[in-house]
């Protein structure tokens, strides 16, 4: 995928692939950073349990593609995940045998339907239909591949920005709005240091994301513009003292 992006950029800039491109360097940095963030033992284990990535159809789409059991980086992280998830050596050996049968299409995984369905069926469905011969891997696949994708982190940022830059208060310059979001987010992080965050009616208040009403007629009397980024009623009751106050001052200066 990264090579395709590089080719597209260099073609647009009318450069050879061995030439230097400032734009490509910036894009490459973003892509590798995202890959490094997702290159964890748990992600690699989930990648290794996706039957689609072993199918001949998927591997044939790109010459550079490898099956998970042939990728060195993925294999190392997968082993780390198995080591942590199955600390017992005998149990871990059983899991490794199950994985070898799964990845190499051996025993029950070698039938025509099992191999054919790898590319067609959804991963979770495939494991439900064909994974009973590897019970430990099947349970792990249900846990990892059954996790829903979520944009809650992005939505949390959007709701914060929407709270600050509402239809009524739409004349804030972009830099001012960004600064308010920055301060608001820092206050959220600092609130996790208080004891009230760990216990009480507002404990773990930000785990499920946040959603604020815009400054409509009902809320205008309650919030003043200068307090816009500081008020989350009943949620950000944070007691700062000593070092914490200094940290707030430093961040506000930024």
**What number is the mean pLDDT?**
76
Sheet of most strands: none
* β-strand amount: under 5%
Protein structure class: mainly alpha
Tell me the number of structural domains: 2
Gap from first CA to last CA: 37 Å
Number of helices: 14
Poorly predicted tracts of residues: 208-252
Order of SSEs, N→C? HHHHHHHHHHHHHH
The proportion of residues forming helix, as a percent range, comes to 55-70%
Give the tally of β-strands.
0
Radius of gyration: 25 Å
Characterization of this structure:
There is one protein chain. It is built from 14 helices and no strands. The two termini are 37 Å apart. Residues 208-252 have low confidence and may be disordered. It has helices at residues 2-13, 22-38, 41-48, 56-60, 72-85, 89-103, 112-120, 123-130, 135-145, 152-164, 174-191, 195-198, 217-220, 243-253. It has two domains: 39-145, no CATH class; 152-253, no CATH class. Helix 1 packs antiparallel against helix 2, helix 10 (152-164) packs across helix 11 and helix 11 (174-191) packs antiparallel against helix 14 (243-253). 13% of the residues are buried. The chain is mainly alpha-helical and 254 residues long. One of its GO terms (molecular function) is protein dimerization activity.
